[in-house]
Amino acid sequence: MTRHRSSAPESTERLRKYRPDIQGLRAVAIMMVVSMHCGILDIHGGVDVSFVLSGFLIGSQLLAEIDRTGKVSLTKFWARRFRRLAPGMTVVILVTAVLAWVYASPLRFRDTMEDGFASSLSVMNWRLVETGTDYFANDGTQSPYQHFWSLGIEEQFYLAAPIVLLVTAWLSRKIFRNRALVGLFLMTVVAGSLYLSVTQTKSNQPLAYFGTQARIWELTVGILLALGAPLLSRMNRGFAASVSWLGLATTIGTALLITPETPLPGYAVAGPVLGATMIIAGGCAAPTFGVERLLDNPVLNSVANVSYGWYLWHWPILILWPDITGHDLTYSDRFRVASLSLILAYAMYHIVEFRFRNNAQLVARPWKGVFAGGTAVTGTAGAAAFAMTILPLNLAGSAGAASSETVGYSNTDSVRSAVLQKELSGAAQGTLAKSPDDKTHYGCIDNTDVETFKMRDNCVIGDPQGATTMVVIGDSHAWQWGDAFNEIGQKLDAKVITMAKGGCSPEVYSIKNPELNREYSECDSWRESAFEQIKDLKPDVIVVTNRVRQEATEAGAEKAFQAFQDSGARIVYLTDTPQPGRNVPDCLATHTDDIPACNPTQDQAIEFPAFRAMEQKVAKRHGAEIIDTLPVFCADNVCPTVIGDQIVYFDSSHITAGYAKSLVPFLQPTFRKVLAG
């Protein structure tokens, strides 16, 4: 850290401008990413390895320039970045937009273009933080631009790194006459960012996964390696070779140990980062028998050259593949996606990337490179913004065709008729345009991080001055009934209090929350506080309804229903609604003349029937009135997604407010009887 490279001749000889081992490691990293995303091999950490590589390569360039000239040419640096990144990014963003327009759900096009806009401006990672995206969700909601989160972090790093390094190096030279301050600053960044990665993974996983603050330590480790490269190059070559081989084993081994249940990024990504660090560090000494012997080959070198393009192409093709082909991904499809995206990467490299990167005019005049890159970014963002203003719905009806009088459920015959329905009516097409936002307008629901139920105004619906009190308790499958219970309460002179928390069953058993990737402790404390609130309220009726989960236990159901019975209230158990398993509005928007393609069978839609039966048995044991919802959702082993003119679900799981309201005549007699009792 304290010596100029020119003062160490042997080290200078070992420090090579071109590193075959790094080129090979770049290929390994992209193969890890594509294999994991495509579901070919469950191996994580490829992006983390890429972050370390980027930090080392950019840090080496900047530190060498500071050594040589005492400054950094920001124009030249940013021009190189623009020439390297902007052409491929522009092509993929625009082509993906066209594919999404042609093949994907028109209902989702605006959101997709908002993602494309954020990606073009290198802020996709923060958009994903804002929306609370689960990166590993497999519910059809992933954006074809979602993978731009890591490019956003890198590009934010490229914007700040030269300025921060130059200022820190200048201060270090003035104060210490060496690079000590640079090293201390970088180590502080690594420690602080790693701390945020670990702590925020526990409290806010999307913020930790996508946030620059929790990822910058991985890039900074690479800069630290570049700073220490002269010292690392003096290692004994035999020892350096051992370090590099151990690094490869660490990278692959720890990447394979990460499972879908591992909280990410947290501490888990430290394994692949450490492994990449060891490979790069060992290679600084140019050992004869290091891991370079394996990584330096024509195949990996070729893959590394197109790694950027492969990363850009594989994800949108993977996400749009079911829409393009008309069927869900098979295992062989996953290989086809990986192969096709690799072919596109090679084509883009030779036709677009190579030409811009080596364009004589852009190289000779850096300001032209910055201008060209800025124009490409601005043009892409402008195209995405323009696309956002277009209403892409190409349906026979219109949003105006829907009205408050749209017919939904009328009787069980209407469900049987819906099973046979082939095409969307004009009114149903109008309803479809609004269905993604047709969520309940009444009742309250607590987010996952809320630990205690607190009574508030929007939790009271129905008739706030009603003579009787009903409590509706459960998760989002209780909240979804809000419009129906509001109307029932008004008609039956009942105050209805909603107690709902996302993903939290009112039955007393432990739940693992997939968003938090850990035990849902907030549910346990929230449930306990809700039970205490029920004791104080002394309601006349308690309505229990929730999504059936595989963690359910009879003991947990028994404990909950005993508590409800002890409150003195009458109990109503509303059985869970079916799960269509796919985003219904998206499916219907692309199958307006083939509704059956979107209708799941009853066997597919009814989750965990054994647990469902168990909960119903326990509820009966405690005197609950049972309302079986199955007849109003399914008939003849089919659960139609359109009944009457109403779209039944607004996503892959929850019923629309419109359909819930149409079920008031079905629900009301039971509640009239129970309240009268």
UniProtKB/TrEMBL annotation:
<dbReference type="InterPro" id="IPR050879">
    <property type="entry name" value="Acyltransferase_3"/>
</dbReference>
<feature type="domain" description="SGNH">
    <location>
        <begin position="455"/>
        <end position="668"/>
    </location>
</feature>
<dbReference type="GO" id="GO:0016747">
    <property type="term" value="F:acyltransferase activity, transferring groups other than amino-acyl groups"/>
</dbReference>
<dbReference type="Pfam" id="PF19040">
    <property type="entry name" value="SGNH"/>
</dbReference>
<feature type="transmembrane region" description="Helical">
    <location>
        <begin position="216"/>
        <end position="232"/>
    </location>
</feature>
<keyword id="KW-1003">Cell membrane</keyword>
<feature type="transmembrane region" description="Helical">
    <location>
        <begin position="85"/>
        <end position="104"/>
    </location>
</feature>
<keyword id="KW-1133">Transmembrane helix</keyword>
<feature type="transmembrane region" description="Helical">
    <location>
        <begin position="179"/>
        <end position="196"/>
    </location>
</feature>
<feature type="domain" description="Acyltransferase 3">
    <location>
        <begin position="21"/>
        <end position="328"/>
    </location>
</feature>
<feature type="transmembrane region" description="Helical">
    <location>
        <begin position="156"/>
        <end position="172"/>
    </location>
</feature>
<dbReference type="GO" id="GO:0005886">
    <property type="term" value="C:plasma membrane"/>
</dbReference>
<keyword id="KW-0808">Transferase</keyword>
<dbReference type="InterPro" id="IPR036514">
    <property type="entry name" value="SGNH_hydro_sf"/>
</dbReference>
<dbReference type="InterPro" id="IPR002656">
    <property type="entry name" value="Acyl_transf_3_dom"/>
</dbReference>
<feature type="transmembrane region" description="Helical">
    <location>
        <begin position="335"/>
        <end position="352"/>
    </location>
</feature>
<keyword id="KW-0472">Membrane</keyword>
<keyword id="KW-0012">Acyltransferase</keyword>
<dbReference type="InterPro" id="IPR043968">
    <property type="entry name" value="SGNH"/>
</dbReference>
<dbReference type="GO" id="GO:0009103">
    <property type="term" value="P:lipopolysaccharide biosynthetic process"/>
</dbReference>
<protein>
    <submittedName>
        <fullName>Acyltransferase</fullName>
    </submittedName>
</protein>
<dbReference type="Pfam" id="PF01757">
    <property type="entry name" value="Acyl_transf_3"/>
</dbReference>
<feature type="transmembrane region" description="Helical">
    <location>
        <begin position="264"/>
        <end position="286"/>
    </location>
</feature>
<feature type="transmembrane region" description="Helical">
    <location>
        <begin position="298"/>
        <end position="315"/>
    </location>
</feature>
<feature type="transmembrane region" description="Helical">
    <location>
        <begin position="239"/>
        <end position="258"/>
    </location>
</feature>
<keyword id="KW-0812">Transmembrane</keyword>
